[in-house]
């Protein structure tokens, strides 16, 4: 399948053959949703925590003797029955939200999302990116040829390998971000409106399939 190849000025300079095994997969919303929920659950950190009767400060002494007072018996003022006492069955930070994801399902969901993006014309292939100095302004000038710089999370630049200058120049941009193709996940694909692949990055995804 054919796709237009751009230079960093946003000009079409050639056409490139893209592997159908990556960019022409059938859209599978059920699988994508399942993997998305699992990935988000694995990122979730338990914050809410209510103290039980054993964690609340105080209450070591029995409030009154067991018999002879005419009142109900109590062993601690930190019982859940008392104001200021522990909480029964409250949320705890020990709770785990992790969900297992099959590696094959995870990868197939990623390819399905990439194919959908390509079908919706939200993927562009760029020949290469070269900047003279690692400056935010220079990187913004390159990316504005492909993205709407007025909107947040407009695009994700996908590199074949780490490039300190490009990463440093992009990290302060609100409308774009950069990632290495080996770290690309379904969350990244769905978070950003447009994806910009450097040409060599596509080859690395194809190698992961083989």
Q: Please state the structural category.
A: alpha/beta
**Globular, elongated, flat, extended or rod-shaped: what is the shape?**
elongated
CATH topology of the domain at 2-18 and 100-209, by name, is Ribosomal Protein L4, Chain: A
Average the pLDDT over all residues and give the rounded result: 91
Q: Using DSSP, what is the number of strands?
A: 6
Distance between the termini: 18 Å
Subunit arrangement of the protein: single chain
Low-confidence stretches: none
CATH class placement of the domain at 2-18 and 100-209: Alpha Beta
Task: Describe the main β-sheet briefly.
Answer: 6 strands, mixed
Adjacency order of strands in the biggest sheet: 2-1-3-6-4-5
- Assign the CATH architecture of the domain at 2-18 and 100-209: 3-Layer(aba) Sandwich
Percent strand equals 5-15%
Query: How large is the radius of gyration?
Result: 27 Å
Give the full name of the CATH homologous superfamily of the domain at 2-18 and 100-209: Ribosomal protein L4/L1
Helix content: 25-40%
Order of helices and strands: EEHHHEHEHEHEH
Q: Can you count the helices?
A: 7
């Amino acid at each position: 399948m054919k796709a237009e190849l751009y230079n960093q000025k946003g000009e079409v300079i050639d056409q490139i053959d893209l592997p159908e095994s990556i960019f022409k997969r059938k859209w599978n919303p059920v699988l994508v949703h399942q993997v998305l929920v699992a990935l988000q659950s694995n990122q979730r950190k338990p914050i809410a925590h209510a103290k039980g009767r054993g964690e609340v400060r105080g209450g070591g002494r029995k409030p009154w003797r067991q018999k002879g007072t005419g009142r109900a018996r109590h062993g601690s003022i930190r019982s859940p029955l008392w104001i200021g006492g522990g909480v029964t069955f409250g949320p705890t930070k020990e709770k785990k939200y992790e969900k297992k994801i099959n590696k094959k399902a995870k990868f197939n969901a990623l390819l399905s999302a990439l194919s959908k993006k390509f079908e919706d014309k939200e993927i562009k292939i760029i020949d290469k990116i070269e900047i003279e100095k690692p400056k935010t302004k220079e990187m913004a000038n390159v990316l504005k040829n492909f993205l709407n710089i007025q909107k947040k999370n407009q695009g994700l630049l996908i590199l074949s390998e780490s490039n300190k200058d490009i990463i440093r120049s992009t990290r302060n941009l609100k409308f774009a971000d950069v990632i290495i193709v080996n770290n690309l996940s379904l969350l990244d694909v769905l978070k950003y409106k447009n994806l910009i692949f450097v040409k060599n990055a596509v080859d690395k995804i194809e190698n992961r399939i083989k």
